[in-house]
Leucine-rich repeat-containing N-terminal plant-type domain-containing protein
Amino acid sequence: MLIRFLVCFVFAVAIASVDCNSEGDALISWKLKLVDPNGVLQSWDPTLVNPCTWDLGNAGLSGPLVPQLGTLANLQYLEVFGNNLTGTIPTAIANLTKLVSLDLYQNQFNGAIPESLGNLVSLSFLRLNSNKFSGILPVKVIQLVRYGNLRILNVSENQLAGTVHRKTTSGFAVTKIIQDPRAQK
């Protein structure tokens, strides 16, 4: 009887692990919040081994980013530029520690740029330009230039205040920081 129970238990665990695709679930929860007038999301298959391979730049999408995206532990590129996405950047995005490129430019995002983005030390490209972000650019994000891998930081064409002072220190990689010219005084 015990052997029969163990066989059934192992079988149930095997089925549960096959049916459970947390990354696919996170993406489907986001898909349900998006408006997709061009039908680019119709081909999404949450059962794929790697469901994180969709090209969503200039796709005509509208809607928010969802906190569940922060569970995509292996995501390296989040490129949703040139859409009509709205709302704020969920702080859970800071959980994407393997992220190399975060391209949210040319959308309608607003609110503050989360300081938690400064945790993304693998980030090489952070493009947040042409949105409606307000407040100041967090120092922790700027420090990604100096202490992380960040090579391009573009926050121009937003409603940000303050300036980023240029310093040349030998030993650091050349980084291009693009900010609003009207904010420099």
Notes: Residues 2-183 form a domain with the Leucine-rich repeat, LRR (right-handed beta-alpha superhelix) fold (CATH 3.80.10.10). The radius of gyration is 20 Å. Residues 125 and 152 are 5 Å apart (CA to CA). The chain has three helices and ten strands.
